[in-house]
Design a protein that fits this description.
With 375 residues, this protein is mainly alpha-helical. 67% of the residues lie in helices and 3% in strands. The longest helix has 31 residues.
Length: 375
């Protein structure tokens, strides 16, 4: 069997991007909960008499439950709970990374936080790459439609599921011999009335509508401009302070808030300063563009600055400051989400193509060639 034949046998789930994202979010939340709980309780240990029950074992329990559910049960219903439980198990596992890369099993190994952050960023980038990869093939669209129809024997097939299956079949090639047969089967199956969304889904939808209303206001846009204007001013002051300290102190620069010899700065210090300088420079150029009316160009420069912070500066911050750096990372992510909302509105106003298309989903959205969900 060739590699191409093997790939053809692997059928992608139409919601794999969303499921992977659920896994990743569950892992991140688990790590933060564990670290917060351990800090609040002064790092207790379960066990005694020479025994220590490491929380890595709980990770194994959750991941075993996840694998067992996927090996035992058919269809789509187990997928979302499995993504949550698998993410929790992975979070328990990777949180103990420091113990298993040090000879003395040091849970507090300083670079561990940075390594965990890099692993999570790597998984995030892999998810983005797969979601932007090749579209589902005709065979995959048909297979996913059949997967949805497979819920009929257990009474879980309703009008909403029918619409999703029809949308998937609409994407299949017209000359696909299986598509007409599957469509004929779909038309013969009685579907129950669509059930109302669950309470959590209604609350999420309400929050999304509220967020969209807030983003649409001029005050929100002014707020975003203000944040980046402050960042630009702050970046200029930091750069000026560094230059002056180098010039006036005859060969000394700042390491964080502490003056130190330039020759004694570590790779972490240099990387943090260099990436912060680059992000600040992008913000300054963006602020200049914004002042001259180039809002869309400014927003894109601001986004690049945030990406430098998230993918480069925060790595050094996690190594130096451990999990205290999570607050700065959370702020950068919140700014990125807000900026992307504003950017999309600006792109829409400019009549440009938005970067995200609707995807086939459990909510019944029309599918597009990319199989993974909205970006």
């Amino acid at each position: 069997m060739t590699a191409l034949d093997f790939r053809r046998r692997l059928v992608r789930h139409s919601e794999f991007g969303s499921l992977q994202e659920t896994f990743l979010v569950s892992a991140v939340v688990t790590i933060l909960v564990i670290r917060t709980q351990l800090w609040a309780t002064n790092y207790p240990q379960l066990g005694g008499g020479g025994l220590h029950i490491a929380h890595l074992l709980w990770g194994g329990v959750f991941m075993t439950i996840t694998i067992g559910a996927l090996l035992t049960y058919l269809g789509r219903p187990p997928r979302r709970p499995a993504a949550v439980l698998g993410g929790i198990g992975f979070g328990f596992f990777v949180d103990e990374l420091g113990k298993f890369i040090t000879s003395d099993n040091d849970y507090f190994f300083e670079p561990a936080a940075g390594l965990i952050y890099l692993i999570l960023i790597g998984l995030f980038l892999l998810n983005r790459s797969m979601r932007r990869g090749p579209a589902l093939t005709s065979a995959e669209y048909v297979a996913n439609a059949l997967d949805i129809i497979g819920q009929a024997p257990r009474g879980a097939f309703d009008e909403r599921q029918r619409r999703i299956a029809e949308d998937l079949l609409d994407r299949a090639d017209r000359d696909d011999p299986l598509a007409p047969a599957v469509r004929a089967l779909l038309e013969r199956i009685d579907a129950a009335p669509a059930r109302p969304p669950a309470a959590p889904a209604l609350r999420v939808a309400a929050l999304r509508r509220r967020a969209e209303q807030v983003v649409a206001t001029a005050a929100f846009q002014r707020g975003v401009w203000t944040v980046f204007a402050v960042w630009a001013i702050g970046s200029a002051l930091v750069v000026l302070s560094l230059v002056l300290s180098v010039g006036l102190e005859l060969g000394h620069a700042r390491r964080g808030a502490v003056s130190d010899s330039i020759g004694e700065l570590s790779i972490m210090n240099i990387g943090s300063v260099a990436s912060s300088f680059l992000a600040g420079l992008l913000v300054l150029v963006g602020a200049a563009r914004l002042r001259h009316g180039g809002r869309l160009a400014a927003y894109r420069l601001f986004e690049r600055a945030l990406l430098v912070q998230i993918f480069v500066t925060n790595v050094f911050s996690f190594v130096e400051s451990q999990f205290a750096a999570v607050f700065g990372a959370a702020l950068n992510l919140a700014l990125l989400v807000a900026l992307r909302y504003v950017t999309r509105r600006e792109e829409g106003a400019a009549g440009l193509e938005l970067g995200a298309d609707p995807q086939p989903s459990e909510a019944g959205l029309k599918p597009i060639p990319h199989p993974s969900g909205a970006a």
